[in-house]
Design brief:
The structure holds two protein chains of two kinds. Chain A has five helices and ten strands; from the N terminus they run αββββαβαβαββββα. Chain A is α+β, with helices and mostly antiparallel strands. In chain A, strand 5 (111-117), helix 3 (125-135) and strand 6 (140-143) form a beta-alpha-beta unit. The model of chain B is unreliable at 1-21 (pLDDT under 50). Classes of the chains: A alpha+beta, B mainly beta. Strand 8 of chain A pairs antiparallel with strand 7 of chain B.
Chain lengths: 214, 150
């Protein structure tokens, strides 16, 4: 891995840490003004949806995945990596359960699940495609250059850190366990906190839709 | 693996029992019973899996899980997923996990687990693999883990 890539990741984290700080600051400010903020152990709805800036990633079919890819339906984004033994498959199985229940209710088209690999060094498009489709054929896997990933992650406050060591392919990646919800206007609307549960996420997504009058 | 089991039998007065999903190994006053040992089925090509189980120590002495190994994986390690206040998840190698006397410890998703790297073959739900769980006092428990899709 090039030093430049590490620098980009570290820079990304710094931006994220700053972003998280601002976000928590905003939350407190809003609370002080007695505005309605929906927050429980599962979901935190942002005081106002935050419009996202353009970003440029690629999906597993080699097509661009950009801001417009998030429009017209809710998106649940998870930032992980395919060599992750515990947190990622556990989270993706929960999302697979959620999606199965949505399919049964015929409302799956309202929500897309996006797995963003923060480990482009090991996760190429082919590997990522097999990985996400194992959980559900409709799930979307995306990745890109480290700075492209940081450009989206930074806007959501999705922290991650890739611990590469020399040429070894056995390395760990720290990453957030949060799920990020983007609304059909491609605006960042809510955060889902772990431990995740399909039924609880489903009920909070319904709640979010009602709050947003969709 | 066979060599290790033979060596174990030769060096310790062991009673080994298989009983459904649980497995126990006794050496003197130490008795460890491992229940519901499972591995989450991984997507095709995934190079890292995790094993979970409930480990009961029915003896009056604390024991320590110190590691694991298996011919079915390139590397097996005792790991713990830690979550910080911002929900950032990180994995840490554990040199030892205490199983207190007359108590049990659950290895579970999002917590302590056996990280299993580089599977020798693609594992499917229903497959079983043996992982040697290495405890203090030279106790090795060959444990049958079932691959489950859940």
């Amino acid at each position: 891995v090039k030093p430049g890539i590490n620098a980009a990741v570290v820079g990304g984290i710094a931006v994220l840490a700053f972003g998280i700080g601002i976000w928590f600051g905003l939350q407190r400010e809003e609370a002080a003004q007695s505005k309605v903020i929906v927050q429980d152990s599962v979901i935190t709805v942002l005081p106002g949806p935050k419009n996202l800036k353009e970003f440029s990633l690629q999906d597993t079919n080699g097509k661009p995945f950009t801001l417009s890819s998030l429009a017209n339906r809710y998106s649940i984004l998870f930032f992980g990596y395919t060599s992750c033994p515990d947190v990622c498959p556990t989270t993706m199985m929960v999302l697979a359960q959620l999606y199965k229940s949505l399919e049964l209710k015929d409302s799956a088209r309202d929500i897309q699940v996006v797995f963003v690999s923060v480990d482009p060094g090991r996760d190429d498009a082919k590997k990522l495609k097999k990985y996400v489709e194992y959980f559900n054929k409709s799930f979307i896997g995306v990745t890109g250059q480290p700075e492209q990933i940081a450009a989206l992650a930074g806007q959501l406050g999705a922290a991650y850190e890739v611990h590469t060591s020399g040429k070894s392919t056995d390395y760990a990646v720290d990453h957030t366990g949060l799920l990020f919800v983007v609304n059909p206007d491609a605006a960042f609307a809510a955060i889902l906190s772990p431990p995740h549960d399909a039924e609880r996420i489903g009920s909070r997504m319904d709640l979010l839709k009602k709050l947003e009058k969709r | 693996m066979n060599v290790k089991i033979k060596g174990l039998f030769a060096s310790l007065p062991l009673i080994v029992m298989f009983s459904g999903m649980s497995f126990s190994v006794s050496a003197g006053s130490n008795t460890i019973v491992v229940e519901n040992a499972w591995i989450r089925e991984a997507p095709p090509g995934a190079g890292a899996l995790a094993g979970y189980a409930k480990i009961n120590n029915t003896s009056v002495k604390d024991v320590y899980l110190q590691g694991a190994d298996s011919v079915s994986f390139g590397m097996s390690m005792l790991h713990m997923t830690q979550e910080d206040e911002q929900h950032k998840m990180s994995m840490h190698h554990m040199a030892s996990l205490k199983i207190p006397a007359k108590s049990s410890v659950q290895l579970q998703p999002g917590g302590t687990h056996i990280m299993l790297m580089r599977p020798a073959r693609q594992l499917k739900a229903g497959d079983e693999v043996v992982i040697m769980l290495n405890f203090s006092d030279g106790i090795t428990a060959p444990t049958r883990f079932t691959v489950i899709r859940k």
